Amino acid sequence: MSGIPKLRGHHLICLHFFNGRGYNREFVENLKNILKRTSELGMEISLGADDICRSCPHLRGGKCSSDENSNDEIVEMDQFALGLLKKAPGAKTKWHGIKEIIPEIFNFWLERYCKKCSWKDVCEEDPLYREFKYGKDRR
Hints:
Blueprint: E1 6-7, H1 9-14, H2 25-41, E2 43-45, E3 59-60, E4 63-64, H3 70-85, E5 92-93, H4 95-112, H5 120-123, H6 127-134
Parallel strand pairs: 1-2
Antiparallel strand pairs: 2-5, 3-4
């Protein structure tokens, strides 16, 4: 894979709390590679499945097949994330620019998505996630 990575809306938020865990080794290695490339090259905002999704075992025909409603739920998450970040599909942006916005929007994201997310326990291991959720003094 070469060129600028393509990332969908919710990945622009959730990847800030990636800690090396994932579905399988291929998925995790792909994620690490994409994070490295985004920090060097920036990213293009994708509508729908992105460069991370391509290694997901639930991707079928360009859509999430984790359960019968998962793709619709993920598309809605992406739209909400892009609204919070004030970004549009096709836009190019830098990782540090997104990172600067995360503290401002985190509580909106936490309330709407983190509390019911299947990855919540993994994210809660991340110091940055805990700082945003509990404050610097209660990490």
